[in-house]
């Protein structure tokens, strides 16, 4: 074999070895759902100009968010603390560190921190560009 062919084979074997050994990422599905936490199924979503927004929200000890609603799909991940979410119909759910929540769409609710440490959330929104992320009551 000439040197060029040996070199190409060596490169190909190196790439194959590196690609099979360098990947060690692990993934866990945190949430996969077709409905919100109150069991309402998502309706067909038509988005002409999609916009994705990600917020980091911190709720202090003893604080509550205002009563509000979302007219777009969003999911919250609890990085730290314990959060209680309550609807205007008094339905509630309590979330802890590591939990995910498929937020309500078009229904009023609020979150409150009754714990002894700040609640830290990462919230992912997807909807039509220009749609408000939340609307206060």
Features:
single chain, 137 residues, mainly beta, Jelly Rolls, four-stranded antiparallel sheet, 1 helix
Description:
- This protein has a domain at 50-136: Jelly Rolls (Sandwich), CATH 2.60.120.
- The chain has one helix and nine strands; from the N terminus they run H-E-E-E-E-E-E-E-E-E.
- It has 137 residues and is mostly beta strands.
- The model has no long low-confidence stretch (mean pLDDT 88).
- It has one helix at 3-21, and strands spanning 50-59, 68-69, 73-80, 82-87, 92-96, 100-102, 109-112, 119-128, 135-136.
- The strands form three sheets. It has a four-stranded antiparallel beta sheet, with no helix packed on it. The protein has a three-stranded antiparallel beta sheet with strand order 5-4-7, with no helix packed on it. Strands 2-9 form a two-stranded antiparallel sheet.
**CATH topology type of the domain at 50-136:** Jelly Rolls
What is the global morphology?
elongated
Radius of gyration: 22 Å
Distance N terminus to C terminus?
77 Å
Structural class: mainly beta
Mean pLDDT: 88
* Amount of helix: 10-25%
Question: Biggest sheet, open or closed, and with what strands and sense?
Answer: 4 strands, antiparallel
Q: What's the CATH first level of the domain at 50-136?
A: Mainly Beta
Q: What is the number of strand segments?
A: 9
Q: What percentage of the residues does DSSP assign to strands (E)?
A: 35-45%
Order of strands across the widest beta sheet?
Answer: 1-8-3-6
Order of helices and strands: HEEEEEEEEE
Number of helices: 1
The residue ranges in which pLDDT falls below 50 over 5 or more consecutive positions are: none
């Amino acid at each position: 074999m000439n040197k060029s062919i040996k070199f190409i084979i060596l490169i190909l074997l190196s790439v194959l070895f590196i690609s099979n050994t360098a990947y060690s990422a692990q993934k866990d599905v945190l949430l996969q759902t077709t409905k919100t936490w109150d069991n309402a199924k998502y309706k067909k979503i038509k988005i002409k100009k999609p916009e994705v927004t990600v917020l980091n929200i911190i709720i202090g000890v003893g604080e509550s968010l205002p009563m509000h609603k979302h007219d777009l799909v969003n999911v919250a991940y609890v990085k730290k603390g314990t959060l209680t979410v309550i609807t205007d119909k008094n339905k509630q759910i309590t979330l802890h560190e590591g939990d995910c929540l498929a937020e309500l769409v078009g229904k009023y609710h609020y979150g409150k921190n009754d714990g002894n440490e700040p609640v830290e959330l990462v919230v992912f929104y997807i909807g039509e560009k220009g749609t408000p992320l939340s609307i206060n009551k």
